[in-house]
């Protein structure tokens, strides 16, 4: 059976693009849309284009601090300076562009909950480094963390599973929910001793009542598909067996593929197809198929296009 996958698709998302020569630019999403279009005939019955909408300030405040949100708005109006210590420059309209990224993620969440689509994918989402009170690592508002808070606070779900396969540790999400046992987090990434943000170690398993609800799996530079799958089989499957999610979020960063200019891993898109297929299966087993995927990082545009298309095809059950 083919599943209906809502894909956030619109010019508004392309506006989340930093000035050249910053590596996070609109060409990443454009290349993905073009690649996905190559499968238009095969996926015609599975893909639904979802127009982005801006999130409300109240929704952003589910995770972020009011002072920080106001700081982003002011920097956006000025169009100058940095939102962090040098990775995330402000540009004219960055506040509105960020609201569209968050809004697209939340719209997909709401459509999944309403049963209007089975699964969702936001290629510009997955901004997992942003903290409650600061930007970080190209990420202004943390749409993944906001979505988790929405599911916990507004919907009242007992458990959310967040899986992150970006080469960089998803520190904004991981530590944002480190003491919350309702949020199970599995993060597979390049060893933090060798890559930004320098976090995400195996001994970090959660705090207080949440001990055991978090798992970091670290891979050495040069690790490829087989190393990823071996680590997944040895550690991830046991962790997933103890999870009873009511909703699954996958951050499908593509910067682990060989040839990415910012990282040192050596995957192919087979990793993304493998993980998305496994979580798709888990979603149908445990939470009536409720799974949302987010793009995350990736700075070789051809890699990004292939990896994210593999994710969409897996969610459509057409991998």
TL;DR of this structure?
With 319 residues, the protein is of the alpha/beta class. It is 37% helix and 13% strand.
Radius of gyration over all CA atoms, rounded: 18 Å
Number of strands: 8
Span between termini: 12 Å
Number of helices: 10
Looking at the structure, what is the overall shape? globular
Mean pLDDT: 97
Q: Roughly what fraction of the amino acids lie in strands? A: 5-15%
Strand order of the largest sheet: 2-1-3-8-7-4-5-6
- Helix coverage percent: 25-40%
Order of helices and strands: EHHEHHHEHEHEEHEHEH
What's the CATH H-level superfamily name?
Histone deacetylase domain
What's the architecture in CATH terms?
3-Layer(aba) Sandwich
Provide the CATH topology.
Arginase, Chain A
Structural class: alpha/beta
The major sheet is characterized as: 8 strands, parallel
What tags apply to this protein structure?
319 residues, alpha/beta, Arginase, Chain A, 8-stranded parallel sheet, 10 helices, 8 strands, globular
